[in-house]
């Protein structure tokens, strides 16, 4: 298409119209076109085009210069006006900035927490290709259980080409380490293959991962553990005693980063002190966690199928019965709350990460709403200014820019304060949340959080006032027409409702979380956990168990002593297919937990026997032939009147002598497991056994010193170690408690910020209605009527907020509670409680202003009319 | 009152000389013819806006013409203030040249 020779190039014209800052751009375009035509007629069009382009391009610099000059002038003016407003309305500015600063500080801290949670396991260089092998087994409701048999790792590494490395891991039990005169219990030990260090990036400070595990007695420890035992000596080649056996330190690891889901202080090979770690290593024993690294082209599904094939070839009984392996990416491990948390594995919870992100956003939104509310409430005061600016020629875009700028200015000031707040309160937040976060300006992700918070706040907080204020019609505001005001107030009400809805949701949420925490902590376990001391069955205690028991019972402050062969509150040895009873369907396999205990077990724990009787020394056959099942187990196997019926574990024939009441031996996240109790020999309980000692509550000190003296007699070398059972159980809910506290504090802050805004809004309303109140008083209204008038307005909106917040909060919290097996109910009390709290706080905030307005002398407010 | 800059006085003189026909194109041509200075339109209009703000010129709107793509011309005329400012500038020049360039 040929260009009309008499038309100048369109692009150039477009550029010119968009850069020209002169007031006479029409005339300017005319001038240029005139020149263009003259040249187009005289010479050729190309020449004219060239001329036109040169003219346009040459014109840009002077235009830009003028435009910069004038915008600078205007910015100076905007700043001046902003500053004056700021000074004139000190209280409002203070509320605005405080609210925003606190909101931003909360938001930054929560986002730092979230970022820290998401940063787990991201430091491994090969992280994209690292997977954990997990098992699904529909039959036994296994879903993503990270248990694999020991021979799996070497087999798949050899037989599946896509798998480059595979390593299995299992935690060591608590072992005593001794070097010269230093002795400590170490509970964070990992049994693993050397290939672990090829898969993961855990750098060595000294030693070589290739040769570190040459001998079975070789040991690799972390720098801080090395420092604990050897001080400043070189740890390499040193000999350390582990449960009496000698081990040589052949490598020193850099300390494991806090954001690693695997946490350990020392690593040993599989052959090391096998008798303390008697994990089954057959294809049928699922005791190990397997990590693999695959190559880039691997397809996870195919690899999983190949793993199942390998396991089938080796006749793994569980795989034959439908167990399936699958690969779980490294990035999902930490936040997978279903996984098993142990001394060597720390876990987060994706659900809380999401919840906290939402809370952070809520708080920021509440703070922004405050800001919007207070800025638009004062709009009447700024309306004249806007009218004036428009009259002398300000375009709307300029007014928008002005108010946006003002918001950004306040946001920036608040942001600086927020940074100060964060640096002040981050240590406290770290203590609350159990993290070690530092705000690091050079860290890209931190910088991103900060920038996002500032920009988001500036945009949300600034947008509405800017649009709202710039829309004023100069004629209307100059004449003092009121119509623009009513529009603002209704929107402000919406904002108050939004804000209070958010706050009520947070109150609701915290109440439910606290109630659930309270519920699981205070719920009846089924046995009495108070006044029970437990000590590990260590070294000689197992061998001389009966002596120890008798020695302990000699003290009058010790009421009862028993023992169990498994740890408290953890997953325990369970097995299926080894049990038999009268009338059992031969095809049926049940999954029961073995609970080897000593006499007096039920008496020591005050665990009730529902039917039959407890173990008794008067019946010698109890020792090998007596079984006590708990209610769940009876239900599982489906026996009617079970007492006296035959029961057998493998070849150990016996009778059910009693039925124990169900008790929560594990945390309330888990359902009560079916258990079978039997009398066990404690002399072999060294791996995880515990001695349970019920003491006299009033004489704790005396009882403990007696236990210690008995311990020292029997175990002169091992450090005395004891725990209170109630604390052991409290520790189960530590992370929940932490999250509860954090959640509570932030909800409280969110409510505080909302109240700041409400306070400002109330004082503004009171101020606006001074004259009305004056007239009312003159006409005979009582102070209480005035207070009611002012508070009713806000009460109404808080009530509406309740109606909005309740269903949403109920729905969300219901979903959250569903992740607990034992959960509290969301009763009407929570609805009423959250509503009442919000209402009370709102009333308290507003009533101060209402009271002041009601008390004022009408003569003062009406004097000037 | 601030002293005129060189370009301000050149443009003002051009407007004075062009009488009724002072608008963008003619002003620019005049300056090019006489002062041998080539101004971009951007610069020219920036100056025109500036001297207009200072009150040295007044604007009147001409008829739209086809050769300008239907756009109106803006004609500039000197105001008494503008004439005064030119005179002052001229006097200042004369004094400087008379006294300082001896």
Which features does this protein show?
heterodimer, A: 865 residues, alpha+beta, 14-stranded mixed beta sheet, 8-stranded mixed beta sheet, 28 helices, 53% helix, 16% strand, B: 102 residues, mainly alpha, Arc Repressor Mutant, subunit A, two-stranded antiparallel sheet, 2 strands, 58% helix
Describe this structure in words.
The complex is a heterodimer of chains A (865) and B (102). The longest helix of chain A has 44 residues, at 45-88. Chain A folds into four domains: 10-84, no CATH class; 127-333, no CATH class; 350-521 and 734-862, no CATH class; 539-720, no CATH class. Chain A is α+β, with helices and mostly antiparallel strands. Chain A has 28 helices and 26 strands. Chain A starts with 9 loop residues before the first helix and ends with a helix. Chain B is mainly alpha-helical and 102 residues long. Chain B has one domain (6-100): Winged helix-like DNA-binding domain superfamily/Winged helix DNA-binding domain (Arc Repressor Mutant, subunit A, Orthogonal Bundle). Chain B is elongated. Classes of the chains: A alpha+beta (865), B mainly alpha (102).
What's the topology here?
The complex is a heterodimer of chains A (865) and B (102).
Chain A: H1 10-19, H2 25-42, H3 45-88, H4 90-118, E1 130-137, E2 142-145, E3 148-149, H5 152-159, E4 163-171, E5 175-179, E6 182-186, E7 189-192, H6 196-199, E8 204-206, E9 218-222, H7 223-230, E10 239-242, E11 245-253, E12 266-268, E13 286-294, H8 300-313, H9 317-320, E14 324-329, H10 330-333, H11 350-377, H12 379-391, H13 396-433, H14 444-470, H15 474-479, H16 483-522, E15 532-536, H17 540-543, H18 545-553, E16 558-564, E17 574-576, E18 579-581, E19 591-597, H19 601-605, E20 609-612, H20 622-625, E21 626-630, H21 631-637, E22 646-649, E23 652-660, E24 675-679, E25 690-695, H22 700-714, E26 723-724, H23 725-732, H24 734-768, H25 770-778, H26 783-817, H27 828-855, H28 858-862
Parallel strand pairs in A: 7-12, 9-11, 19-24, 21-23
Antiparallel strand pairs in A: 1-2, 1-13, 1-14, 3-13, 4-7, 4-13, 5-6, 5-10, 8-11, 9-12, 10-11, 15-25, 15-26, 16-25, 17-19, 18-22, 20-23, 21-24, 22-23
Helix pairs in contact in A: 1-3, 2-3, 4-11, 4-13, 4-14, 4-24, 5-8, 11-14, 11-16, 11-24, 13-14, 16-24, 16-26, 16-27, 24-27, 26-27
Chain B: H1 6-18, H2 24-35, H3 41-53, E1 57-61, E2 74-78, H4 80-100
Antiparallel strand pairs in B: 1-2
Helix pairs in contact in B: 1-2, 1-3
């Amino acid at each position: 298409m040929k260009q009309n020779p008499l038309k100048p190039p369109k692009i150039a014209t477009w550029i010119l119209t968009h850069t020209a800052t002169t007031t006479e751009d029409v005339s300017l375009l005319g001038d240029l076109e005139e020149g263009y035509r003259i040249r187009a007629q005289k010479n050729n069009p190309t020449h004219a085009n060239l001329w036109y382009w040169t003219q346009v391009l040459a014109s840009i610099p002077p235009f830009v210069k003028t435009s910069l000059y004038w915008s600078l002038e205007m910015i100076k003016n905007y700043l001046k006006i902003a500053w004056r407003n700021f000074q004139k309305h000190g209280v409002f500015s203070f509320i605005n900035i405080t609210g925003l600063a606190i909101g931003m500080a909360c938001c930054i801290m929560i986002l730092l927490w979230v970022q820290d949670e998401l940063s787990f396991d991201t430091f491994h260089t090969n992280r994209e290709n690292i997977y954990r092998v997990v098992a699904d087994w529909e039959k036994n409701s296994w879903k993503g259980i990270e248990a694999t048999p020991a021979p799996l790792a070497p087999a798949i590494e050899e037989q599946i080409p896509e798998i480059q490395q595979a390593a299995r891991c299992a935690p060591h039990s608590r072992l005593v380490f001794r070097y010269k005169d230093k002795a400590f219990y170490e509970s964070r030990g990992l049994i693993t293959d050397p290939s672990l260090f090829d898969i993961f990036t855990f750098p060595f400070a000294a030693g070589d991962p290739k040769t570190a595990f040459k001998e079975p007695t070789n040991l690799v420890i972390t720098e801080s553990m090395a420092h604990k035992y050897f001080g400043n000596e070189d740890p390499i080649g040193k000999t350390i005693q582990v449960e009496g056996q000698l081990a040589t330190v052949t490598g020193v690891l850099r300390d494991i980063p806090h954001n690693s889901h695997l946490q350990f202080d020392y690593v040993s090979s599989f052959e090391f002190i096998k008798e303390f770690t008697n994990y089954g290593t057959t294809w049928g024993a699922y005791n190990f966690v397997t990590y693999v690294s695959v190559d880039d082209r691997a397809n996870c599904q195919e690899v999983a199928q190949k793993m199942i094939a390998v396991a089938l070839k080796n006749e793994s009984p569980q795989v034959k019965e439908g167990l399936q392996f699958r690969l779980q990416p490294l990035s999902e491990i930490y936040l997978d709350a279903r996984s098993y948390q142990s001394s060597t594995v720390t876990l987060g919870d994706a659900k809380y990460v999401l919840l906290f992100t939402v809370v952070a956003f809520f708080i920021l939104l509440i703070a922004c709403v405050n800001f919007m509310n207070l800025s638009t409430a004062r709009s009447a005061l700024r309306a004249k200014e806007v009218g004036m600016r428009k009259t002398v020629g300000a375009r709307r875009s300029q007014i928008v820019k002005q108010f946006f700028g003002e918001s950004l200015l306040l946001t920036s000031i608040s942001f600086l304060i927020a940074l100060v707040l964060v640096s002040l309160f981050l240590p406290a937040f770290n203590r609350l949340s159990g993290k070690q976060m530092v705000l690091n300006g050079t860290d890209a992700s931190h910088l991103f959080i900060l920038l996002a918070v500032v920009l988001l706040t500036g945009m949300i907080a600034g947008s509405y006032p800017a649009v709202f204020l710039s829309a004023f019609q100069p004629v209307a505001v100059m004449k003092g027409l009121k119509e623009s005001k009513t529009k603002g107030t209704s929107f402000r009400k919406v904002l108050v409702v939004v804000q209070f809805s958010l706050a009520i949701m947070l109150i609701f949420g915290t109440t439910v979380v606290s109630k659930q925490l309270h519920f699981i902590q205070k719920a009846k376990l089924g046995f009495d956990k108070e006044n029970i001391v437990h000590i590990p069955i260590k070294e000689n205690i197992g061998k001389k168990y009966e002596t120890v028991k008798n020695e302990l019972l000699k003290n009058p402050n010790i009421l009862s002593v028993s023992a169990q062969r498994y740890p408290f509150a953890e997953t325990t040895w369970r097995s299926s297919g080894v049990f038999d009873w009268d009338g059992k369907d031969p095809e049926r396999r049940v999954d029961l937990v073995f609970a080897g205990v000593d006499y007096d077990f039920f008496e020591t724990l005050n665990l009730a026997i529902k039917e039959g009787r407890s173990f008794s020394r008067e019946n010698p056959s109890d020792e090998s032939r007596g079984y006590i099942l708990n209610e769940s187990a009876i239900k599982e196997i489906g026996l009617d009147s079970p007492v006296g019926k035959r029961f057998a574990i493998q070849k150990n024939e016996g009778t059910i002598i009693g039925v124990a009441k169900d008790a929560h031996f594990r945390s309330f996240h888990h359902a009560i497991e079916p258990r079978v109790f039997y009398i066990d020999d404690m002399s072999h309980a060294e791996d995880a056994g515990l001695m349970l000692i019920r003491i006299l509550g009033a004489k704790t000190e005396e009882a403990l010193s007696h236990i210690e003296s008995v311990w020292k007699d029997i175990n002169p070398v091992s450090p005395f170690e004891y725990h209170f059972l109630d604390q052991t159980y409290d520790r189960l809910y530590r992370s929940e408690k932490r999250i509860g506290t954090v959640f509570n504090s932030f909800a409280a802050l969110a409510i505080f910020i909302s109240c700041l805004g409400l306070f400002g809004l109330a004082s503004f309303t009171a101020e606006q209605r001074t004259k009305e109140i004056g007239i009312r008083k003159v006409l005979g209204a009582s102070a209480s009527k005035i207070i009611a008038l002012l508070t009713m307005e806000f009460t109404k909106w808080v009530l509406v907020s309740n109606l909005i917040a309740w269903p949403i909060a109920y729905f969300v919290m219901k979903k959250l509670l569903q992740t607990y097996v034992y959960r509290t109910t969301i009763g009407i009390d929570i609805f009423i409680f959250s509503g009442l709290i919000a209402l009370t706080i709102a009333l308290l905030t507003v009533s101060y202003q209402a009271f002041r307005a009601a008390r004022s002398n009408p003569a003062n407010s009406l004097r000037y009319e | 009152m601030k002293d005129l800059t060189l370009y301000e006085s050149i443009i003002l003189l051009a407007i004075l000389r062009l009488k009724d026909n002072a608008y963008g194109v003619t002003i620019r041509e005049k300056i090019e013819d006489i002062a041998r200075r080539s101004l971009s339109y951007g610069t020219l209009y920036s100056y025109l806006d500036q001297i207009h703000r200072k009150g040295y010129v007044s604007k009147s709107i001409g008829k739209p013409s086809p050769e300008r793509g239907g756009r109106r011309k803006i004609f500039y005329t000197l105001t008494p203030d503008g004439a005064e400012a030119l005179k002052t500038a001229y006097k200042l020049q004369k004094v400087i040249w008379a006294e300082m360039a001896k």
